[in-house]
Amino acid sequence: MQDESERLERWHGKVALVTGASAGIGHAVALALAGIGMRVAITARRAERLETLRNELTAHGAEVLAVAADLATPQGPGEVFARVRETWGGVDVLVNNAGLGHRVPVSEADWEHLQPLLDLNVRAATLCMQEALRDMQGKQDAAIINVSSVAGHRVPPGHGATFYAATKHALKAITDGLRMELVRKHSPVKIGMLSPGMVESEFHDVATPGGRAGGYEFPPLKAEDIADALLYMLSVPRRVQIHDIVLRSVHQPH
Prior knowledge:
There is one protein chain. Helix 2 (about 25-35) packs across helix 8, helix 4 runs parallel beside helix 5 and helix 5 packs parallel to helix 6 (about 160-185). The mean pLDDT is about 90. By secondary structure, the protein is α/β, with parallel strands linked by helices. The protein has a 7-stranded parallel sheet, with helices on both faces. The protein has one domain (about 5-245): Rossmann fold, CATH 3.40.50.720. It has 8 helices and 7 strands; from the N terminus they run H-E-H-E-H-E-H-E-H-E-H-E-H-H-E.
C-alpha cells in the first residue's frame, strides 16, 4: 500500500493557487503544497507579507508567484488568474482560503458592515471557482478545495457570528451544487471543503472586537493541522472525492 507521500507525487510540478496566503491557514497551506513539489501562486492584499512568504518558499527551492490583489473587488479574481495563466498557463489546484468575519449581531449591524463578508466569502470564492474551472478543463488531476468553517454547519452560539455563518452556509451550498454539476458533466475535477473549528490565527484578531488580547478560551487547532487535512484530500485515489472534512480541537466544546 502506498503511503501519503507516494500518493501525492502526481501533483508534483502542477500549479496551485492559494488565496488569503499572507498568514494563518493560507500560509501553512502554501508551505505544504510547495513541500510536495507544486508550483505555488499566492495571493492576498498585503504585498509585504506575500513577499516574505515568497522568500520563505523560494529558499526551500519552490517555484512561487506572488500576486497582491483584493479579491473582494469584482475584478480581483480575474486579475489574479490572468497573472497565473501568463506565468504557468493556469491552475490545477485552487485553495479558496481568503475569508473575513465580523462578530456583530445582525439586528444591530449596518449593511455596510456586512457587505464585505458577502463580497469576499461568497462572491470572490465563486468567481475564483469559475476561473479555476476554465483552467481545469480536460485535466485528469484537478481539485478545488474551499476553506470553510464549522460555522458553515451551524450558527455558533453566543458569538455574534450569524452573518459570517450565513456566508459559510452559502459556500457549502455552492460547493455541494457545483459538485453535482461536475458529476453531470462527467468531469474528473474534484471539489470539497475543509471546515475547521477554532484555529490559532490572525483571523480572530479581526473578527473579535478588541482582538484576542485575552487569549483563547481553549487550546485551538494550529494552521498546520488544516494543511495536513488538505494534503490528505489531495492524496486519495482518483476515484475518491472528499466532500468535507470537519475538524476541531479536542478541547473545543461547541
